[in-house]
């Protein structure tokens, strides 16, 4: 493959991966020189991500992606050329390159999003479940300080499943004026929710991830749904203020605590009866 664009150069260290950006003109990169980086295809990708060790795969194409590595015993590192393996592109719903995904025991855990720098990549590997940052574009939230996770057709299900405590998801479009007005409050609420440990907030751009929005029959914006234990359990009908959003999550959290107390009481009662 010829490389004539900005290169993403990954360094895999004994503790973590990191990368820097460099320029290299028209050359081919030989992954065989780096045996700890596995070159993947549709034939071996499933066995690779099903390993007992977590793994990171970089899906690349014509953009010049160049990788270096050193020994790492905690994480598997793989690369896959989407230009030569369309099957994987379709089955794993990869719509752009480079795309970097963290897997664990066969399941996608998180996608590395946002600005691609050495420090942000290191932070991602330290905590793959941290909120997924917004990319640039018409629907970007990059100008808003928040802990909102930005989801798409590929990472939506995995994020919801990995946050069983509860996720409040805002479905929006870039051209929606009401959505734009609500973003600051939603962003502020996301930070408070993380601090109070009462759940998390996420957003889906329906102009980009139409399939997700079609699944939940989203026809107006913004539309907010609450997901718990991986399922859509409620629609948020409160006002679009920080206080109302937090109150909704707190009420849900209190209900969880009450249910847990009731469940524990029933277990203790049954235990006493059995002992008698």
UniProtKB/TrEMBL annotation:
Record domain Thioredoxin: where: 124-254
A biological process term (GO) from this entry: protein folding
Q: Name one GO cellular component term.
A: endoplasmic reticulum
Q: Which CDD domains match?
A: PDI_a_family (cd02961), TRX_family (cd02947)
The record, for InterPro entries, names: PDI, Thioredoxin-like_sf, Thioredoxin_CS, Thioredoxin_domain
Q: What SUPFAM superfamilies would the database entry show? A: Thioredoxin-like
> Record keywords: Phosphoprotein included?
no
One annotated GO molecular function: protein disulfide isomerase activity
Q: Please, which domain of life does this record's source organism belong to?
A: Eukaryota
| Biased amino acid composition, Low complexity | 256-266
Signal sequence extent: 1-26
Alphabetized, the UniProt keywords read: Signal
Q: Which Pfam families match?
A: Thioredoxin (PF00085)
* Family that this chain belongs to: Belongs to the protein disulfide isomerase family.
Report what the protein is called. Thioredoxin domain-containing protein
């Amino acid at each position: 493959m010829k490389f004539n664009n900005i290169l993403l150069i990954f360094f895999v260290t004994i503790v973590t991966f990191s990368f820097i950006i460099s320029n290299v003109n028209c050359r081919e990169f030989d992954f065989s020189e780096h045996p700890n980086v596995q070159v993947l295809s549709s034939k071996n990708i499933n066995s690779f991500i099903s390993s007992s060790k977590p793994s990171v795969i970089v899906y690349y194409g014509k953009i010049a992606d160049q990788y270096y590595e050193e020994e790492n015993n905690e994480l598997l590192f793989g690369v896959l050329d989407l230009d030569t393996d369309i099957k994987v592109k379709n089955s794993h719903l990869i719509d752009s390159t480079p795309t970097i995904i963290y897997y664990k025991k066969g399941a996608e855990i998180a996608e590395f999003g946002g600005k691609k720098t050495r420090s942000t990549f290191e932070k991602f590997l330290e905590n793959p479940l941290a909120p997924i940052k917004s990319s640039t574009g018409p629907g970007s939230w990059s100008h808003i300080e928040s802990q909102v996770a930005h989801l798409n057709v590929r990472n939506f299900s995995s994020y919801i499943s990995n946050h069983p405590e509860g996720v409040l998801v805002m479905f929006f479009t870039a051209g929606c004026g009401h959505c734009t007005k609500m973003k600051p409050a939603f962003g502020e609420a996301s930070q408070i929710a993380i601090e109070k440990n009462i759940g998390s907030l996420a957003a889906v751009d329906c102009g980009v991830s139409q399939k997700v929005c079609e699944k939940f029959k989203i026809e107006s914006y913004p539309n907010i749904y609450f997901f718990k234990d991986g399922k859509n359990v409620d629609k948020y009908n409160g006002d679009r203020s920080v206080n109302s959003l937090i109150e909704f999550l707190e009420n849900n959290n209190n209900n969880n605590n009450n249910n847990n107390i009731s469940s524990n009481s029933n277990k203790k009662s049954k235990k006493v009866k059995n002992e008698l």
